[in-house]
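User: Quick sanity check before I run a bigger batch. Here is a single chain. Can you write out its predicted 3D structure?
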Amino acid sequence: MSVATPLSKIFACKQSQVLAEKIAKAYGQTLGNVITSTYSDGEFQPSFEESVRGSRVFIIGSTHPNSDHLMEMLLMLDAAKRASARHITAVLPYFGWARQDRKDKPRVPIAAKLVAKMLETAGATRIITMDLHADQIQGFFEKPVDHLFASTIFLPYLKSLNLDNLTIASPDMGGSKRAYAYSKALESDVVICYKQREKANVISHMELIGDVQGKNVVLVDDMVDTAGTLTKAADLMMERGALSVRAICTHPILSGNAFDKLENSKLEELIVTDSIPQTKEHPKLRVLSCAELFADVMLRVNENKSISSKFLM
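Assistant: Done. Predicted structure follows.
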């Protein structure tokens, strides 16, 4: 006996409205109606203006700081749960607070685990996200997690560049696994940057492991925040004889003076997705949309189909 596919509805948090509209269009339906009321002190209340009873609800929103973005996702999950939605999927193109995935010194929180528990408590029955800062964050959830890889977006673009003597680089030791996966797909060499930090976002020293002489280098990372690591790595590689240096970063946080660093660096191009909305444009910044990827996976989830073909890494 076949089981009927539940009616699906897609809603957007304010911070991801533009991306959600692209996802909904690729999915084949319009966004659901949500109205947010705001009190004078900044407290806000989202409201679904249509029934979600018995539906599979997808709520799209990246949870990058400030904390209002996470809070809006939690409130919408809670509202869907209390409105008797059958399935509630939190679609997090960027899973914020993920850098705090362990105790790296005494008396600090593990924020990624806390956020995971909050999402589940609020009502999420499934999580769809992309390029987590650390793969093991999936284990912080007790609900199913579909962890997508932006390599499905970036690899076709890289191949279209037809770069000779291509070398993939990781800006730090922690990203070596990601770099090796790209190098395997592109049949290229790999180099690794070794860096030491004074504190968060401040690099005291960087060294290069490998040869980039005469190579076109592509740095690969999951996110770019202040762009300090990427620009320093790019400048170092050009000093060591690289022909060109590009960078691929899934999540463009680009805080502080990141755009100034990008402008003054020897990076030829910074390639990102639209998981985090950008208010600034820059000639070195190229944005590739992840809408088709998320829409396809959401369709497969709704129809109970396999999504394993979306995992290139």
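The helical segments are 17-27, 67-82, 111-122, 151-161, 176-186, 228-239, 258-264, 291-302.

User: Great, the batch can go ahead then.
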